[in-house]
Give the backbone structure.
Amino acid sequence: SGPRAGYFSWRCDKSGRMLDQNPASDGEAWIATALLFASGRWGNGQGLLDYRTQANQILHVMLHKEDGGVVDSVTNMFNRERKMVVFTPYAQAATFTDPSYHLPGFYELWARWAPQDRAFWAEAAATSRAFFKKATHPQTGLAPDYATFDGAPTGSGMNFYVDAWRVVGNIAFDHAWFPTDGWASEHAARIQGFFRREGLRTHSNQYTIAGMRLGGDRSPGLVAMNALGALALEPGAARDLVLELWALDVPRGRYRYYDGMLYTLAMLHASGSFRIYAPR
């Protein structure tokens, strides 16, 4: 209810009680797409089980929250002028973006399936693909956690850290589903070359985007995303990255939520099990 009606809290306790009222803009993108895929796999039921209707409601609010005016500084999840996802649809946090939130592979599907705004979603997909070319470093391929809409690192997210791990995977699965040009493969080769030089068993999980180590350990989530990024490489060039994923233990302990989700996602993609299911 209230100004954020239709958005999800990004952080709750185990009972569902909100610990932070704000959403994380990638969350709605994943939830809406999961619901569309659920519609394709299992059909649509009633109420909350009407997957396609639920997905379409989320897509609508993401783009039309401001239609009645901005209330309590809550904005759209996409900057309609820049055709780009915002970090958080609230006040100053809506004036920049997070490269790992860009999911052109999903926007491409929304452009085909959504009941409205299809032209916008198609433009958003093209915008994100162009944005990746600006936001990733030309030598290392690394992206920052946060960036301006023009692709420059910004604020407290100037470096390659936990959010930015996902960028290589987002680029690669979009390329696997909707290949547009050869840049995604060039990027995959660039960033994987960086991590091979750092050592596939010895690299860190934190760097400046120019490639200077900032400390930290080798993290399962980053290993998993590099394996997912191998979708944009030729099979021979991908093998060692996928074997590193296969050699991982299932993530446990304090960081199992994030590492474990990225591990699961990479396993689904690497096994060919993360598929497009057109909604009914």
Observations:
- The mean pLDDT is 97.
- Residues 38 and 51 are 6 Å apart (CA to CA).
- The first strand starts at residue 11 and ends at 12.
- The radius of gyration is 18 Å.
